[in-house]
Amino acid sequence: MGENGDQPHCCEYQQAKGGKSRVTAASKDIFSYPLTNRDPDPMLIFDGAGKGQTSPTRHGQGDSLMNRFEAKVAEITGGGLQSERIKTLQVNLGLRCNQQCVHCHLEASPERTEAMEWATMVMVLEAAKRTGCELVDLTGGAPELNPNFCSFVAALRKEGFPIQVRTNLTVLLEPGMETMPEFLRKQRVRLVASLPCYLEENVCGQRGPGTYEKSIRVLKILNSIGYGLDSGLPLDLVYNPGGPFLPPSQSALEQAYRHELAQRFGIVFNRLLTITNMPLGRFQRELDRRGQRETYLRLLQEAFNPQTLSGLMCRHQLSVGWDGKLYDCDFNLALRLPVDHGAPDHIRAFGAALLLRRRIVTGDHCFGCAAGSGSSCGGALL
């Protein structure tokens, strides 16, 4: 809760040992937070490209060494982390984005050219049929910028698959996107929209100047065509912290978002999803620049919660990279750590039986999903 017992501010954050502090909306530097000052543990030091990281589990290649997360899991379960099913097939359509956010683990930007081709999309469609997944989750970059986006969505809907698109909102104001909101409505596409705070300064601090005003404009457009109001057109928002700290309570922060967005703009939405920043990509580089990486990693480790293990998203979904490579999650995609332990690692060799019950490739970054209330593409786990 906030300082006076009211709803939590979207800048409220948690330090190690559960202590909380508050950063005001006037803060100019979103990374200027007083983290615990301790000597770094060399076993925690790694970078987004894998150099210096404690090795991810690669048992399928004869390496029996465990990273710290895998060892922690083994203490609790007696073995490695196993998938249970493929409820969600997450598909990364490319790394091109109209924004360049400071927290992006994939380092998406307008300059990126990686994009899924139609031939790969056809294979993804066939794989979705074979898994019997309950949801196809389209992400990027900005997935809407893939030239085959609309054709792929239409093909998936024709086969009866529910579709969820992760949108940054502002992309819907780009040239050529004028009819996209109506297309999404007609296809009954669920939307998960990034809005890392309800305050302008904090949003622009993470996503760039002008992004808050554009986001609000798009949310109003989406409300006007039924999103967030029609039961068949859910509109969820995503919060991620503006610095190296854990999210506050998802339910309490959702109430604050509802109040602020409704009072200021008349905007409604269905759910708020809180997602922990992963020490990867652009966010990790900023941690390095500030000298905060080791302390943040320690925070994630100290906040490890074994109750999150059953709900970890890697146990219930499979991620397909823009080039067809298969990953246990979007974060392993960022690290280029494909599925292993004997499971096929490319969509062209898709084998549902081997992938449904696979051993998951882990690394020390996995502490980010198991810290506190847990974190996933669907928000908090507890």
Distance between the termini: 17 Å
CATH hierarchy class name? Alpha Beta
The CATH superfamily is identified as Aldolase class I
Q: Any idea what the CATH architecture is?
A: Alpha-Beta Barrel
Basic shape: globular
Give a brief description.
This protein is α/β, with parallel strands linked by helices. 29% of the residues lie in helices and 10% in strands.
Descriptive key words:
two-stranded antiparallel sheet, alpha/beta, globular, disordered N terminus, single chain, TIM Barrel, 10 strands, eight-stranded mixed β-sheet, 382 residues
What report would you give on this structure?
The structure is a single chain. The chain is α/β, with parallel strands linked by helices and 382 residues long. The protein has a single domain, classed as Aldolase class I (TIM Barrel, Alpha-Beta Barrel). 29% of the residues lie in helices and 10% in strands. It is built from 11 helices and 10 strands. It has an 8-stranded mixed beta sheet. Strands 1-2 form a two-stranded antiparallel ribbon. Strand 4, helix 3 and strand 5 (163-167) form a beta-alpha-beta unit. The longest helix has 16 residues, at 250-265.
Secondary structure elements and pairings:
Elements: E1 13-14, E2 20-21, H1 68-77, E3 88-92, H2 118-131, E4 135-139, H3 149-158, E5 163-167, H4 180-186, E6 190-194, H5 200-207, H6 211-224, E7 235-239, H7 250-265, E8 271-274, H8 281-290, H9 293-302, E9 317-320, E10 326-327, H10 330-335, H11 352-356
Parallel strand pairs: 3-4, 3-9, 4-5, 5-6, 6-7, 7-8
Antiparallel strand pairs: 1-2, 9-10
